[in-house]
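TOPIC: backbone geometry
CONTENTS: sequence, structure tokens:
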Amino acid sequence: MKTLKIAASEGASTCFLNAREVVPLGHTDFTDVAVAVVSVNDVLAGSLDVIQRTGFDIPIFLVASPGTSTHPREVYKHLNDVLLQVNGIFDLSPSNVEYHGNQLETAAKAYE
């Protein structure tokens, strides 16, 4: 079986280290994706809805980056919904990239 990929936005892809191919969120139909990594701005742009409309039940991880969102009120309004839809939350700390990569690999293997 072909190894599925990780879909991530440009900013979100810096928070993990993994051997799988990473494809941009906006350049995939998710048929070859095992896990998705989205940022707060991706959520505000509707990425969660796009992923969920595929019906593939792809594991989703959110990158929480305090102080970088320009829309804190909108994030707060969506917080409960978002937390119920994601499998985990990553930070942007460079000391956690391997740990986050391992979490993605575990989720991807379970999905495959």
Remarks:
- The chain has four helices and five strands.
- The CA atoms of residues 76 and 82 lie 10 Å apart.
